Amino acid sequence: MTTLLVVTFAVLAAYGVYIAALAARVAPGPAALVDGGADLPGWAAVFAAAGIAVAGPGLLAHLVLTARFGMSANHVAAGLVLAAITAVLLQKRLWLAARIAGLGSPGEALGRYYGSVTLRLVVLTVSALFALPFSATLLSQLGALIAEASADALPRAGVVWSVAFFLFLPAVIGGWRAIVLIVAAQSVLLAVLLVAGTGFSELALDGPGFLSAGIAVGEGLLGDGIPGVVQFSAGIGKDIAHGGIFTTVGIASTALSLVGIVLSPGFLYLAVTVRPGRSAGFAPVWLIAGLGAGILLFLTPFLAARMTEGIAPLIAVLSAVEPFAGLALVAALAIGLQVTALFFMTSGALLATREIVVPYVVPDLTPAGRRLAARIALAVTFALAAALATFAPVSSAVVASLALPMSVQLLPALLGLAFVRWISREAVLTGLIVGTLLVVFTEPFGLVLVEGLFGPLPWGRWPLTAHSAAWGLVFNAAAVLLVSIFTRQVRGRGQRDRLHDEFAARWKTDFGGPAARGAKWSLTLIWSFLALGPGAIVGNRFFSEPVFAGETAPIGLPSLWVWQLFFWLIGVALVWWIAYPSRLAVTSTAGLRTLAFDPDPVPPGRAGAPGWIAAGLARVTER
Amino acid sequence: MSADDARRDRFDRHALVTTVWLPAAFLAVLTMHHGYSGAGVWWVVAGFAALAGGFAAHIIVNAVLATGFTAREVALGLGCFLLGALGLMVAVLVVDGFAERYFLVTAAGLAGLAVIVVFYMVTRFGPRQAFQHFDVVRDNNPRRASRLAHRGGRR
């Protein structure tokens, strides 16, 4: 297994360097390293987006949780449909805003639209969360997985640094374009390997599998159902939720956290830098909601049922039957981790270069100098992530838990940019502050900090089995609505109106007449209620003990699994209905007019910076 | 379209082609290894099916991007096919019991791949042009007059 693993990862590393070298040769100029010329091929964006959306929330973690909590944890994968709906709604409008106003990144788009430097910094902070602790946690998990699969023949720290180095090489050679192409290729490989590894384990392994024995969970946990609508638990770490943490509230709120992947700055940067075409609809509808959610919902129980003692014994058994099958499973999980880390580390470094280093720190750089700056940022990011993964994996995991829920807090700001012109800067910033506080104090980072400094808090992580993303977003949205009422006509409204007028004049979204519009949103709410919300509790027994029959009707499958697959199919149709007839699926530059936003509140250069900052920067950069 | 754009499009297509062949090749190796390790000939058949799937995906890429196989791709494909045939011959001569157990399925798999390629060429180019791709004897006259229609319109 060790030899096979080394050869496989050597082949993948060589492939990455090969693609990066070719990408560097066809790059139109030095600036293309940072944004791929804002002309990424649609197919690459489609596969890369799907791969990141599926692997980003944690493929390995999903398997482990399903093996531990049973079908209720598997239910969370249906949340990818929710992520797909969000991506459909936002991506085209963000792409248009970027092209209309000449904005090259999500931070710049939000910052200039709302006229707020703070918002730009918030986006950069979220980007840094994904690039450093989040990616470090993924690298750490990757190192542990490979060390376990190779029986410690490949040490964890060595794997972390080797992988980080061989991921860094294509990033520094080929830049954004190369990374998106590599992530796309490896995402396709990930999907095939996951299907092959699962299929092979079912065909070749003896012993009861999922269909005959179900998922064996621990005592006190409900393996084949959802343990209630909500449990009045103080949170993880304070008490134990009866039957498991994935109540319907837990499922819906964790599904909401999956939206954080498609709202992450790196993912939005991908959406902004793709060339016009059909990728804005194809990726969310067919690959994220369709293939991605389907693969997870359908295949995970089969693997989880054989993971009663963890992933390593399953890999060992599979390898004993066929080494390549064990390799397929390890490689699928490892590729999921490495593409996500590669994507977020690269996008984080490039966004930091683009939004901080080039405009403010060293503003007089030539294009070649900017490319060098981006390469230095990449080196620093990859080295820091590898160091965190090696020396501080627990601290990284604690901070990384903030990344997804913090990313979800950007939703009101992005909805404002895309559709809701009356959402003001003041409202967005207030909502972000409130949402961030809620997220921080319902995740280990805030809890550890406060309990370490002041003493125990009455709640733990995810009180009432609700994920921190939901806690934050509920209060964030409430604050946005409340503050917007009082700030609808404040300064900056004219600029927002200009963009939305342009949308309305040339890029109208057609949700249909009043009936179609009502049907679309009411069906989305009904679907959310039944697929992810409290209605999903009906799925526990709906197909095995139908209430209308008055007796049991054994179908040989967990009723909840059938419920999940049924609502997944309906969900795909729903995303399609929102995307295609509403003209949200296709982007085009035909008839695109440019629009000048108000000048940046802090113009590029150091003129607007406090004297001591300007002097400090000059001391470092002008020697 | 500028030369730079054309070069970039060729590169994007190349990346897409490698994207479809990467998983197909891995699947083929997985199933063939399992098959040749004694699990049964159907696993070997599955390996050839994975290669056929990769070829089908490559054709779809060509159709979507309105391109054809490049000379390098043809050369690589032919080289791999010949390597496979050579491997079959060596295995028959060197490996005990290979001929009895695996010759038929491997030879049938290689022949099947060849038939798929020929089928593709016939449906893509028509029988005459498909044959002309291999008709090197017809093209061996360097004189310009040999290209005249009344002399058969060679080339």
What tags apply to this protein structure?
heterodimer; A: 623 residues; mainly alpha; Hydantoin permease; 0% strand; globular; B: 155 residues; transmembrane transporter activity (chain A); Sodium:solute symporter (chain A); membrane (chain A); transmembrane (chain A); Na/Glc_symporter_sf (chain A)
CATH architecture of chain A: Orthogonal Bundle
Low-confidence stretches of chain B: none
Ranges of chain A with pLDDT <50 over ≥5 residues?
A: none
Order of helices and strands of chain B: HHHHH
Q: What count of domains describes the coordinates of chain A?
A: 1
Annotation, overall tally of beta strands of chain A = 0
**Main β sheet profile of chain A:** none
Name the beta content range of chain B: under 5%
What share of the residues of chain A lie within helices? 55-70%
Sheet with most strands of chain B: none
| The first-level CATH class name of chain A | Mainly Alpha
CATH topology of chain A: Hydantoin permease
Order of helices and strands of chain A: HHHHHHHHHHHHHHHHHHHHHHHHHH
Can you tell me the overall shape of chain A? globular
Distance between the termini of chain A: 52 Å
Number of helical regions of chain B: 5
The strand count of chain B comes to 0
Keywords (chain B): Membrane, Transmembrane, Transmembrane helix
Transmembrane segments (chain B): 15-36, 42-65, 74-95, 101-122
GO molecular function, one term (chain A): transmembrane transporter activity
Main location (chain A): membrane
